[in-house]
């Protein structure tokens, strides 16, 4: 197995992409790219179910990708699902089959996270000066970002993509002025909520990424409709050319590949709306996109600049969390995790890290009130944009906070398809013990953990003199013992 290789896979609504890179002198060097058009969003029904045919195309593609991933370490692979897998009612079924084929979990990421990663992909592959507007038109959504350097300043994901708009406005491949104008108007409606923010921030240059924008750019250049770059005037001339045809199948432009022909008109309609609404004068093309953003996240983490850590620190600061108490709980939870990791088969990534952030943030619900703090904390963590976290890991973080105290109502445990339920429950137990043991909020009060493990049963060894001096704290630990017993989990205390 080649330990220098890293892989990023983007499961888009129109195409699946894979990028392979080699880590050389601390930098990512791309050595291979694979792309398959799968049209995952095509044929989605009114109940938002992906069609059996679309799912089969996607899984066939992933079977090929799996061969290329077989010699890469699992912790050096990231697989991200985007708009269609966020939206589809039967996404969980597809994700489970995909994970089985790839022998690796699939992360379904939020629209905001997708936009952030797209910007990172562009920022790491282009020389950017000043504030830059970045646009990525995918199969199901369009991401729009304003950033400076490596820092995004505004992120949004709008529900308009070349596959979804093709199905809505150009069914059967028919082209007409009414259909084109209706698609442009629909894109305008999608853009309306963010226009004020984006116009206020402004930008000095504009870059477009993704296959749709590249195809429009190539057609404009090869049909000699522009001297370089995408402009409003060039798009207007292209629209006239498109409307001289009645069917999408009749479009035979230079630079228009057969696999992009079906969704080309929808992409042009979305671009026209973007240029009109924001407004944009000129857009140039960037090779960087979501998969490059995923790759460069590896580079950031290797340099100990994990965006998830910055996210947790920013939340703690924003909600004025008691840092001394969160540190006490964090230290206790991690010490117990390390003692139990081998016996309980707890993997450091991602569980140790997520447990640490849960310890740091478990009291975030105090911003609402103390009553029901565990529910308030879970609500905030589940419903806040958390850069760097995929949907499953964000749900796990919120789940740990939800169950950090009070009775264990495990019927409320959410589905976590990428996480083993037994591992999740064991992390919950660790956090609960750390919270219960630090109830008095005093530094240096706790003796070092001494714990014996038998299956799911724990026996904590505690100094007798310490127990005698801390009756209130012992009552708290005994209450936790009762909560565990209700679930059939053994928790005993041995006095030493």
Which key terms come to mind for this protein?
single chain, 496 residues, alpha/beta, Nucleotidyltransferase, domain 5, Hypothetical protein af1432, 3 domains, six-stranded mixed sheet, five-stranded mixed sheet, 14 strands, 17% strand, elongated, Exopolyphosphatase, hydrolase, EC 3.6.1.11, PyroPPase_GppA_Ppx
Largest sheet: 6 strands, mixed
The spatial strand order of the largest sheet comes to: 8-7-6-9-11-10
CATH architecture designation of the largest domain: 2-Layer Sandwich
Q: What is the CATH superfamily classification of the largest domain?
A: Exopolyphosphatase. Domain 2
Average of per-residue pLDDT values: 92
CATH class assignment of the largest domain: Alpha Beta
**What is the terminal separation in angstroms?**
48 Å
Number of strands: 14
Beta-strand residue fraction: 15-25%
Radius of gyration over C-alpha positions, nearest whole angstrom: 26 Å
State the secondary-structure class: alpha/beta
Work out the helix count: 19
Shape: elongated
Question: How much helix is in the residues?
Answer: 40-55%
Low-confidence stretches: none
Total discrete domains: 3
In CATH, the topology of the largest domain is named Nucleotidyltransferase, domain 5
Describe the structure.
The chain has 496 residues and is an alpha/beta fold. The chain folds into 3 domains: 5-109, ATPase, nucleotide binding domain (Nucleotidyltransferase, domain 5); 126-286, Exopolyphosphatase. Domain 2 (Nucleotidyltransferase, domain 5); 306-444, Hypothetical protein af1432. 49% of the residues lie in helices and 17% in strands. The protein has helices at residues 52-69, 83-87, 91-102, 111-123, 162-169, 177-191, 195-201, 211-222, 232-243, 258-277, 290-302, 307-318, 323-344, 348-361, 373-383, 391-402, 421-437, 464-469, 471-486, and strands at residues 5-11, 15-24, 27-37, 77-81, 107-108, 131-137, 142-148, 151-158, 205-209, 230-231, 282-285, 451-454, 457-462, 491-495. It has a 6-stranded mixed beta sheet, sandwiched between helices. Helix 15 (373-383) runs antiparallel to helix 16 (391-402) and helix 16 packs across helix 17 (421-437). The protein is elongated. The two termini are 48 Å apart. The relative contact order is 0.09. Its main location: membrane. It is a peripheral membrane protein.
